[in-house]
Amino acid sequence: MNVKTKIQAALLLCLTSYTLQAAPNAPDSKYLCILNPETCQGNQQPPPPPGKGFTNFIGITFVSIPAGSFYMGSRKQLEKDKVLPAEAWLGIEEEKLPSNIPLDPNVSDDELPLHPVTLSAFQMSAHEITVGQFKQFLRAIGTEAALKQGLLSEAFREYNIYGDNAPVTVVSWQDAQAFIAWLNQAKPSSDKHSYRLPTEAEWEYAARAGSQKIYGFADTDGQLGEYAWFTGNSGSQPHPVGQKKPNAWGLYDIQGNVWEWTCSNYTSAYEGKEQRCSENTSENKVLRGCAWLSSAGYCRLANRGSGTSSYRNDNYGFRLVAVSS
Fold first, then answer.
1. What's the whole-model pTM score?
2. Do 53 and 124 meet the contact criterion of CB atoms below 8 Å apart?
3. Integer angstrom CA distances of residue 316 from 49, 65, 87, 240, 298
4. Which residue, 134, 175, 204, 226, has fewest beta-carbon neighbours within 10 Å?
5. Residue 99's pLDDT is what?
C-alpha cells in the first residue's frame, strides 16, 4: 500500500468513526425516540438550548435573554409610505424608523403603534411547559384539589394525550398562575429565582431574538414549517416540544404548537400595558405565538391574541420567565 492509499484509508476510517458517533444525535433520532423510546435508551428530552441558562428543580430549562431594545408591533403601510410629501422627501421631519423594519401587508390595528421598547435581561423557559411538568404540580396539590379547581376536567384529560413531553393545553391564565404560585412556593432554598409569565413586551422581544423581520427568520412564511407546528404540518394536534428549530436565542416552539399566555392585559392599541403584568382577572389577557391549528399569518411575531383569564382551550398553553429574586 503506497502513501497516498494509506492516507485515503485513514481519512475513510476517521469519517466512518465520526458518522457512527454522530448518528445518535442525527435529526431523525428525535422522531425515533417518540416511535420507539427503547432506541434512545430513555433519553427522550429535547436537546439543550445554546447559551447560558439553568434547569430548575422540576426540569424546566431556562435560557438567558440579554438586555436590549427593539421596535414592538408592526409598521403599517400608510399614505406617507406610498408617496412622501415634499418635505419628507427632502429629509425634513422624516419618520424616525430604522430602515430594516418592513411594511407588513397583514398588519392588524391592535399591533399599532410601532414603538421602541427597552428591557432588562431576564431568563425564559426554552420550551413551553409540558404535560409532565404540569403533572408534578397536579400530584403535589392532590387529585381532590385539582378536580375541585377544574384542573383535571374531562376536556383536560381528553386533549392532553400526546405524551409527557407535549405542551400542556386546556389551561387558563388563572391555571397558569396557580402553577406558578406552587412553583415559587415549592422551590428549594437554593433556587433564588422568582417565576412568572412574561409580559407581552418580553415575549415579543425574546421571540424576535434581535430580528425585526415579520416572522423572525424572514419576512415571508416559506420557512415556517422548519420552526413551527401550524395548520400546514401539525396533523391537527400538538407535538412534543423541541422538535423544530429554535430561534436565535435558543427558544423552541416560540411560534406554533400552542398559544402562550402572557401576564399583560390586552388593549386594542398599545398604550403601555404590554410592558406590565396585571393580576386583575376581570380583564382579557394577551396570548402570543399561534398554535397547531393556526394558519401561517397568525404566526407573524407581531400578531396578538386575547382571552378571558378563566378561559381554557385545547390550543392554549404557556412558558415562563425567571428573574433573580
1. 0.81
2. no
3. 23, 23, 48, 15, 14
4. 226
5. 73
Residues 229-248 as b/e (b if ≥16 CB within 10 A, e otherwise) read: bbbeebeebbbbbbbbebbe
Q: Long-range contacts for 24-30 (Cβ within 8 Å, ≥24 apart)?
A: 30/242, 30/243
Q: Is residue 9 part of a domain?
A: no
DSSP 270: -
In a domain, 26, yes or no: no
Residue 119: its H or E element: strand 115-119
Phi/psi at 324 (5° precision): -70, 130
Start-to-end CA span in the chain (Å): 67
Q: Which three cell numbers stand for residue 248?
A: 436565535
Q: Is residue 227 part of a domain?
A: yes
Beta-strand (E) ranges in 3-67?
A: 53-55, 61-65
Running DSSP on this structure, what letter comes out for residue 287? E
Residue type, 320: L
Please give the grid coordinates belonging to residue 94. 422624516
Q: How far is CA 150 from CA 154, 170, 258, 281, 316, in A?
A: 9, 10, 20, 17, 15
Per-residue model confidence as pLDDT tens digits over 107-132: 999 999 999 999 999 999 999 999 99
| Cell 392588524, residue located | 108
Type and span of the H or E element at 140:
helix 131-141
pLDDT < 70 regions, the chain = 1-51, 77-96
- Residue ranges in the chain assigned as alpha helix (H): 3-22, 27-35, 79-82, 86-89, 131-141, 143-148, 154-159, 173-186, 200-208, 224-227
Domain span holding position 131 = 53-324
Whether 36 is covered by a domain: the verdict is no
CATH number at residue 113: 3.90.1580.10
Q: Kindly list the distances between the CA atom of residue 24 and the CA atoms of 18, 29, 36, 37, in Å, as whole numbers in the listed order.
A: 11, 6, 14, 13
Number of domains forming the structure of the chain: 1
pLDDT for the residue 98: 75
